[in-house]
Target: Haloacid dehalogenase-like hydrolase domain-containing protein 2
Amino acid sequence: MVRFVTNTTKESKQDLLDRLKKLEFDISEDEIFTSLTAARNLVEQKQVRPMLLVDDRALPDFKGIQTSDPNAVVIGLAPEHFHYQILNQAFRLLLDGAALIAVHKARYYKRKDGLALGPGPFVTALEYATDTKATVVGKPEKTFFLEALRGTGCEPEEAVMIGDDCRDDVGGAQNVGMLGILVKTGKYRAADEEKINPPPYLTCESFPHAVDHILQHLL
Model:
């Protein structure tokens, strides 16, 4: 049983599925669980009308959600929207009592041209300015991993998380009882494995090495 879990807010689940299929992944939509899905679930549960500070390509995941006269702010990775006027609009909504929902609070992410600021610094800026606390729905939140496991028939203790983010992937997974394997690819930086306690169950050079370890030692 496999689940692909991601904090990406740069594209909708359908776009992500299409991209993975072009890479010849044998994958179905129900095997993908994203932080955008978690955010939409929370918006529907709270019955709020969000100002959506997300990438335009992620908007299809919020189709049907009422956004006029907003009384909440949903913030993900939205480089094109992270400028003073828009952030100030969000700031004023929060001062008026709007709920702040963070799709995730990653510090940075990996782009083709190098590391870049994630949504975390912008979420934290709004929290600081308004003296409020965001509800975070993506990794490393416990509810994210538990929701991802829903329907698999697996308990956290029976699951393994493989990822390149020591805090959000490995630390978050291990906090719910999963085993966490850190891979030295993507956004990994030297000595990342020393940043969490307990440390990763295992640190591997690459994803195939992690899979080999699971097949040889955990099944």
Summary: Residues 42 and 137 are 8 Å apart (CA to CA). The two ends are 12 Å apart (CA to CA). The longest helix spans residues 35-46.
